[in-house]
User: Fold this.
Amino acid sequence: MPKAVVLARYPQGEIAEEDFAVAEVPMPAVEEGFFLIKNRLFSLDAGFRAWMNEGAGDNYLEGMKLNEPVQSIVLGEVIESRHPDYPVGAIVNARTAWEEFSVLDGSDLTSILETTPGVPLHEYMSTLGPTGVTAWIGLMEVGKPQRGDTVVVSAAGGAVGTVVGQLAKAEGCYTVGLTSSAAKAKWLVEEVGYDAAISREESPDLDAALKQALPEGIDLFFDNVGGAALNTVMGQLRENARLVLCGAISQYEAEAPDPVTNCWELITKRARMEGFMFSDYIDQFPAIMDDLGRRLKKGELKGFDQQYHGIEKTPQAFCDMMHGNARGKCLVTLD
Ligand SMILES: NC(=O)c1ccc[n+]([C@@H]2O[C@H](COP(=O)([O-])OP(=O)(O)OC[C@H]3O[C@@H](n4cnc5c(N)ncnc54)[C@H](OP(=O)(O)O)[C@@H]3O)[C@@H](O)[C@H]2O)c1
Assistant:
């Protein structure tokens, strides 16, 4: 029987591998209007953590249910089809679950990938996939960087953060990444190309570290983390600053959310703070992926990923990603 990773219990605070279980599930039947994909890659996305809590669920997604496959973005190949638009052999990206096989009807962010020879498949789940697209939309469409801007990115060493830093640099900005460890900060500067990086390990006083790195203040903050870091950055804005709210990873496991305390700064600095969901821009995905592909080809953008092999490794991979033990995009590859 095929396998899936299910939610074994609702996480209490920090996610643990024991919150998940690998279970055997029946092979799904393919009815008229549906098609079957054999999944090749799982994307490990921090955002899904928010919908794993007991009682979670909002206008965007339903909360996850116990003993059901954990929701995820996947990449798979069509192996059986009763849907005219999804022929056997097509490679598709979809929002479904951590399962070896999925039956789909073409809805829920499903699209056929136009792959380019020579581009490895995993790139379509990272730089050329929802991660890269999220980074692009948040930075270019919401943040609107200007040459010479000072740009700060939180969770800079993660999937979205590594792409945002490179895009901002290519737009002529001065980039500062916020991360957990000294080793990751070094990697961000030496490998990813940030101009500077601040780690919580070496500089627990973020306020002081930012004042030292950017004495003139911050033009654009791309926030993946929320909470205390967001409040600190809000106190160091330049006039007409933009705060892009992409994620709030520090809040997904918190018992009570941190209050946002520095809103007055938005007024006096004439700043704009705006959240976005990448899925609202689905019509622009092909054009954005073309742009990201061109940048990859030019060498302006590099893909950074950490791959785990086999469905059994999925719980570990997700926990590593959530706990900052991974670098760049975290993926699980399947046979
Ligand atoms: N709005 C959208 O449409 C959209 C789409 C996709 C993702 N997102 C959001 O974007 C953010 C990044 O997602 P991702 O999938 O690329 O994950 P990710 O950044 O690859 O992984 C999570 C990283 O967050 C950092 N982190 C974890 N716990 C933290 C804490 N308590 N405080 C500060 N940093 C912490 C760690 O990086 P360091 O070790 O570097 O600190 C960790 O590696 C998430 O918040 C996600 O919800 C939003």
Summary: Residues 45-47, 131, 134, 155-161, 179-180, 184, 224-225, 246-250, 276-278, 321-322, 324, 326 surround NAP (CB under 6 Å). Helices lie at 130-143, 159-170, 182-192, 206-213, 227-234, 263-268, 285-298, 314-322. The chain has two domains: 3-126+304-333, 134-278.
